Each structure stands twice: as C-alpha cells, then as structure tokens.
Amino acid sequence: MSATAYATAFAAIFMTALASFAAQPATAEGGAPAVADIVKKLEANRIYDTSSMDAKLAVSNQFGITANEFTVYERKSGDTLVVITSGSDRGQKVLRQKQNIYLYYPEAEDVIWLKGSALKDSMMGSDFSYEDLTDDGTILDRFDAQLLGEDTFDGAKCWHIILTAKAKTETYAKQEILVDQTSYVMRHALLFSAAGKAIRELSASDIKTVNGKNIAFSSVMKDLMKKNTSTTMTLTRVEIGIPLSGKYFNREELSW
Amino acid sequence: MVTRRARFALIAATFAFLTFVPPSLQAEAVPSAQIFVDTSLDADNKGVRVIDGTTVGGIRLRLDSSKNDALKGSFQATIDSTKKTTLDRAYFKARFPWFVEDTSLRFTAGLAPLSWGKGFLFNAGDPVFGVIPKVDALSAGDYRTATDWMGLLYLPVGTFSFAELVCLPPVSTRRSRSGGRFVLTPDFGFLQSVETGYLFEEGPVHKGYVAMDGSLFFDWYAAGSVFDGEYAISFGLFRLFDFIPNLPLSLRTEGLVYPQKNVQYWYPSLTAGLTDELEFGVQGYAQTGDDNNLTAGLVTSLSPLKGFTLSASAMKRFEKGEAVQPDILIKIGCVCSF
C-alpha cells in the first residue's frame, strides 16, 4: 500500500477518533460547567453503536492536490473498516480491530498485520502515524483535562481545554482543543510532541446533525512540521445507528 | 500456455465489451491504467551507455468489478513497446454462505496472486512461487508479485484464522499442483500468526512448510520448509526507527539458508524517507558459502504526485571480492497511474 493510501485510511480514522475524547473528573471553574461534563458531551456526539460514512480526502502539497474517496464502517467497540473507493489506491483497505491494524493490498491479494515499529510509519505523506489508529477510546484514563476558559473559533463560542498525557508513551504529550459550546463538536485542536512543540493542527466546520449527533462534515489537518501541506476531509454521506453486519470486521471481508 | 494471440483476443474482447455494453452495466466495472517506461544503463570510467534492448515502454490496462457483495472480477494485461502482450491477472471471486458467523466461503478461479508463507524477498514458506522470486534487479518496489492459474477455496474458521485449498492446473507449469494451508492467529503480539501448508505436485513432489510472524522490538518473521527432500529456512527482521523527526529510517534484513548445502543468501535494506515524496535507500543481495558474491547499491523513488513515480537504482556486483561487468548497472523507471 502506498503512503497515500495509508494517509487516506489514517486520516479517516484519525479525524473521527480525535473527536472521541472521553471525560476526566474535574472541577468546575466559575460559572463554566465542569470540564468532565464538556468532554462527556463531546464524547456523546461521537459514540454510536454503528456508523457508515462516505468521504472525500484531498491531500495538498507543493506539487498539487491528490484526491481519494473512501467508505468507513465503524461500530461501538472501535472496530473500523476503511475501504478506499476511488483514486489510484482504490480497493485497498485498512481494518482496525482492538489494538491491531491490518492492511489489505489488492495487488498482492494479501493482508498485512501492522505491528511494532511499523505503527510509527507515516501514512500517505500525511502527518499521521498508525499509532494514532490504535486509539482505543480510553483517553479518559490516559489524559488529565483542564478547562482554560472560553475562546472563539470561526465565530463560534468554544470551551478551551488542555489534555495532558499521563504516560510518556502517548503519541501526543498534550492536546489543546476548542469545543463548540452549542454543538459540542471539537472545532480546533493543536497536538503537541513530548518536547512541547505543536506538530499538528486540526480544524473542523460545516456542523450538521445526523440522527441526533452533531458532526463536522469538513475537517482540515495540517502538519506544522512541513510547509504548504494540508489534508481536507469532506463527509458526503453519514449514517448513524444503522444495522451493520459484523462481517465488515474480519479478515474475510477485509480481503474481499 | 495461453498463446499471444489468445491474450490479444481476450484483451480486445474485453475492451469491445466495455465499448458496446449498456451504460448501466459499464458502471459495474472500473477501468484503470498504468503507463510505464523503464531503461537500463551501464556506467564505467568510459561513460554511461544505454544497454541495447532494455528500454521498454508500455501500458497496463486493468478492469475491476465494483460494488458487488457476492461476485467480483479483476483483469489486467500489459502491452509494451516490444509488441509483447502479457496477461497479468484474470480472475473472479464468488462468496457463498458459510457456517462461521459473519464470514463466507470464497471461491477464486483464474490467474491470480497467492501469498503463502512469510517473507519480503526470501520466503521458504512459498511452495507455489518458490523460495527466491525472479528479480531483475533490486529496487524500491515489492519483489513477490507473481500470479498463476488456480482454483482456490477460502474457508474462514474464525475472525482471522482460516484454511485455504488450492488447485493449480498445468498452465504455466508442466505439472498440476494441489494443496492447502491453515493459518492460525493467536494474536499474542510477540507471536501474531502461525501457518502450515502442503503442496503436492505431480511427479510426485511433496512440499511442506511452517511459517510464523510476530513482534518483539523487531517485527520478525520466519519460515521453514521441506520441498522434495530439500530443507530451507528463511527469516527476517524489520524495524522502523524515528531517531530524527520527519526522517523515518526503515531497516529490513532477511536471510535464507539451506542446511544440507553450504549456501546462504542475505538481503539487507536501509531506507530513509527524506520527505513524503522522496525515499532513498541502500540495498544488497549476497550469497555466501561455496560461492561468494554480492550485489549492492542505491535505490531511490520520487512520487511528487499521487500516481506518478520516478524510480532509480544503481547496483554494483562483486564476485569473490572483485567487481565484474557491467561496472555499475543503473535502472531508471517512470510510472503514471490513472
């Protein structure tokens, strides 16, 4: 699988996973709600029994724009299947099951288990690594949350929250996020390395409500370590709470 | 053997079908193509020369079915500037109900790839395509991409564990072959999967193997086999290092030994991702034992745009410590996919 395909799949899962920060016990400051309540509402927007979505991914750099389309199937356990449906990597698939990442290469009709150090591999020339895909949704236990106050993003009032990793093994030592006070969608995130340097930036817009859940239909990810690069993901179809067969999350479907 | 005329007829018929079938049916198939140009050069102290007959351009045409949950097909053929037509793959897959929950029994028939065993270059666990693949030169690409005519049954026995039964008729080989493998995925991390298989070839020739992989600081994989009384063991290590931010270094090394012979093969590779678009690496291929030789050099690939890749390699061969002709073999290639 090419780096571009990696990035497509990664971005799909990463961008959705980013919105799934869980709540940390915290104390309310002034008239503001407790940070735990804010993050719980944020998380509530991201937790569904099942979901399926189509998306377009445009990766731009100094050479131009590369477009891909993909379909994502996801269930509450965190199991996720990404199928690249257009572009030169069409047919390639990525399956996240628990902590494991599996890649399917149609050229070789082979399934590769991504393991160990290979999880650090960058995907698709993007700023993402496979380690980000292994996020199991237990960020609540891994980060301390602190409410810094209020801020605005794209005209929307937001809660300004800092998540600090409890363990040095986390991919991001600190995450600074803005949560929309109305929709409880994460509108902006700055992701920091252990050295304290901001390495990635995510911004979200075009908030729509689907089956009671507020979802950002447009997201832009930037790698702050590189110049003139960005990845834009646009959701074109979102279905939540639909019947979803378990067949999407095993090797047989992955290699189909 | 599929004749050249038959291949041409198959390709022509496919594209005639694409041209004349109703649009509603055309939407079920997705065409794609790759245009490529490759050339080889010989470099020495007298200069650099293109090696006669090595410059080849061509197109790979591909057709894949889409959005069918029970039946799918794939076709790919290559036509190059030497007027040679090669059928790369032509197969269909069909799925049927199966007793294991959320899985299907799958039947594949045609000219298809098959990946048995474990290995990037050497794979003692591949009784179908062999322990060492046919490789023209070291490069930045994959080495084990062969296909053959087959009928294949895929039988899931769990979420990731499965069995396969295969029959390979005497199309590309003189003798028919048949066998099976069982793949178990204990998912212990340090031991991710174990597989064992057997292939019978008319003759008779018996081929059996065991392969496994896992991760323990290094990602590791190994295979051992007995092919017609000849033992072989291959093994490999892989790790991606990130000593420098945004400069990933991938290290892979593989070995292949034949315990009954005094011959060993080695493949080391170190690749650096200088940017998202540019990779640069060193690779080697060595034989030790009764015969000693080494081919080593540099490989690089540049993909400024998705679907467009420039690649190059420069290799030098040594036998018993001495360089042999050509002094340096340079291969340059370009691929555009759309």
What would you say the CATH architecture of chain B is?
Beta Barrel
Helix content of chain B: under 10%
How many strands appear in the DSSP assignment of chain B? 20
Give the DSSP E fraction of chain B (strand runs of 2 or more residues).
over 45%
Instruction: Output the structural class of chain B.
Output: mainly beta
Let me know the number of strands of chain A: 13
Q: Oligomeric status of the shown chains?
A: heterodimer
CATH domain fold name of chain B: Porin
Q: Average pLDDT across residues of chain B?
A: 86
Instruction: Provide mean pLDDT of chain A, rounded.
Output: 78
What spatial order of strands do you see in the largest sheet of chain A?
Answer: 6-5-4-3-2-1-13-12-11-10-9-8-7
What would you call the shape of chain B? globular
Number of domains of chain A: 1
Distance between the termini of chain A: 16 Å
What does this structure look like?
The complex is a heterodimer of chains A (about 260) and B (about 350). Chain A is mainly beta and about 260 residues long. Chain A has a single domain, classed as outer membrane lipoprotein receptor (LolB), chain A (Clam), CATH 2.50.20. Chain A has five helices and 13 strands. The longest helix of chain A is centred in the first third of the chain and has 16 residues, at about 5-20. The two termini of chain A are about 15 Å apart. Mean pLDDT of chain B is about 85; it is low at about 1-10 and about 15-25. Chain B has an 18-stranded antiparallel beta barrel. Chain B has a single domain (about 5-10, about 30-335), classed as Porin, CATH 2.40.160.100. Chain B is built from two helices and 20 strands. With about 350 residues, chain B is mainly beta. Chain B has helices at about 5-20, 25, and strands at about 30-45, 45-50, 55-65, 70-80, 85-95, 105-115, 145-155, 160-170, 175-185, 195-200, 205-215, 220-225, 230-245, 245-255, 265-275, 280-290, 295-305, 310-320, 320-325, 330-335. Chains A and B meet through β2 of A and β6, β11, β13 and β17 of B.
